[in-house]
Amino acid sequence: MDKRFWICGLTISATALALGFFVHGLLLRDDYLALAHLFRPQADANAQVAWILLAYLSLGLAMTWLYRWLPPPHRSKRWHGARFGLAIALVSFVPWHLLAHAGQPFPLTLSLKQIVFDVIAMLLLGLLLAWLQPHRRPLAPAPD
Question: What residue ranges are annotated as transmembrane (predicted)?
């Protein structure tokens, strides 16, 4: 795990946190407020912020690590990254929201919004990873 891995991983983590805040803190805020009785009280939720940061750090570093294992794209880096983001969404956020809907009294409309917004966020993170190219090797030093 070289310097490039850590830079890309932390960039993806920070971007995922920002996208998570945008989706769940802004876009879905009213939906969550309507179900406030199902969630922790605000003061208790604020005390759990370290777990949220750890979750997004884990997401960013894991996505970067997995992306580095993929063979480099032969054609379009952009679509390579988008497909990777979609695959991550399909093995994480989509089943998670479906299971949450099945086990918790969330309205189907909220679960579908969560899925759509989180899939879009994962596509964007995949595109960012493709742009960052975490498996690119540094150039060799110029000969003397």
Answer: 7-28, 48-70, 82-103, 115-132
56 vs 36: CA distance, rounded Å? 23
Backbone φ and ψ for 34, nearest 5 degrees, come out as -65, -20
Contact of 130 with 80, CB cutoff 8 Å: yes
Q: CA 62, 88, 77: angle at the middle one, nearest 5?
A: 90
Instruction: Give pLDDT tens digits for 82-136.
Output: 999 999 999 999 999 999 999 998 999 999 999 999 999 999 999 999 988 876 6
Residue 20 main-chain phi, psi, to 5 deg: -60, -40
Give the up-direction half-sphere exposure of residue 86: CA atoms within 13 A in the CB hemisphere.
Answer: 6
Q: Give the SS3 label for residue 48.
A: coil
| Gap between the Cα atoms of 94 and 97, Å rounded | 5
